[in-house]
Write a structure and sequence with these properties.
This protein is an alpha+beta fold and 182 residues long. It has three domains: 2-63, Alpha-Beta Plaits; 66-116, no CATH class; 122-181, Homeodomain-like (Arc Repressor Mutant, subunit A, Orthogonal Bundle), CATH 1.10.10. The chain has helices at residues 11-23, 44-56, 65-82, 92-100, 104-115, 119-137, 142-148, 154-165, 169-181; strands at residues 2-6, 28-32, 35-38, 60-62. The model has no long low-confidence stretch (mean pLDDT 88).
Length: 182
C-alpha cells in the first residue's frame, strides 16, 4: 500500500518516518521523499495513529489525490535542487512531465490553483531558502552557490535574492555572521 506524506522533503524526514513506522510495527518496502510503500494495507486506526505520530514531527498523511500530486511536484523540485546534477536537467517542465507522467500545463495549473503561487515562484522561493542556508554555512563563495543552484550568473542570483528578501546576499551573510558570533 502506498501512502503519501506532506512536508517530507529531506533525508532527515525519511529517517523520522522510518522510526515512526518501526515504532508502530509496520513493515515497508521503500521510503522516498513524500512517499512510502508499506507491505500491508493499513486499517483506519493504524492510519490515524500514524498520522498523529507524523503530526508531532511536522509531517502529515495526504489522502486527497490532488494534494498528493502537488506534494510530488514539490518533491521533484527538492530532488532536482538537492540531489541531482543540474547539468543533466536542461528543461524543468520536461523533467517534471517525465517524472510524474502528466502534462506540464496541467501540473502548473493544478499547483497554482491549490497553492496560490506558480511552480516557478515556488522554485524561486526554494532556491532563495537554499541560498540563505549556504550563506549561513559559509563554505561556498557566491560563484559556487550560483553554479550549484543553476543561476546564469552571480549578478542574477544577487538580483533575485534582493528582489525576494529586500537584502543583498552579502548583507544577509554579514548579519547572519554577526548573529552567530553574539
Amino acid at each position: 500500500m502506498k501512502i503519501y506524506i506532506k512536508y517530507m522533503v529531506s533525508i532527515r524526514c525519511k529517517m523520522f518516518v522510518e522510526v515512526e513506522l518501526e515504532k508502530l510495527g509496520l513493515q515497508y518496502e521503500f521510503i522516498e521523499l513524500g512517499e512510502v510503500e508499506i507491505s500491508e494495507d493499513l486499517t483506519l486506526i493504524q492510519m490515524d495513529i500514524l498520522n498523529s505520530a507524523l503530526l508531532v514531527i511536522g509531517l502529515e498523511l495526504i489522502i486527497n489525490k490532488k494534494e498528493i500530486l502537488i506534494e510530488k511536484i514539490k518533491c521533484v523540485i527538492v530532488e532536482m535542487y538537492h540531489y541531482l546534477n543540474k547539468s543533466t536537467v536542461k528543461n524543468f517542465s520536461e523533467f517534471l512531465e517525465e517524472k510524474l507522467n502528466y502534462d506540464y500545463t496541467y501540473l502548473a495549473n493544478l499547483f497554482s490553483e491549490n497553492t496560490g503561487i506558480t511552480i516557478e515562484h515556488y522554485i524561486i522561493a526554494h532556491k532563495i531558502e537554499n541560498i540563505k542556508t549556504l550563506l549561513s554555512y559559509d563554505e561556498m563563495n557566491m560563484t559556487e552557490i550560483s553554479s550549484k543552484l543553476n543561476y546564469r550568473s552571480v549578478s542574477h542570483l544577487s538580483s533575485q535574492f534582493k528582489q525576494i528578501t529586500g537584502q543583498k546576499p552579502s548583507f544577509f551573510k554579514t548579519i547572519n555572521t554577526q548573529r552567530r558570533l553574539t
